[in-house]
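Note to self: keep these together.
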Amino acid sequence: GRRDDSVDIEDIITRDRRELGYGVGNVIEKSSYKIINETDVHYLEQEIMNITDVFLNKIAKGNRS
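Structure:
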């Protein structure tokens, strides 16, 4: 975990706002791939596997963009 991990919702909101102030939101918006983590761990694992497959297929084909 992160040094600033917390289970307290107010701490989480404060950290998220701080990071958005650093421009993290802009970086996320410009990303080619996003994993939305708003459901259960099984869905998250499946999303990670799907994106991993995309990356591995691109590497296998020599397309790294």
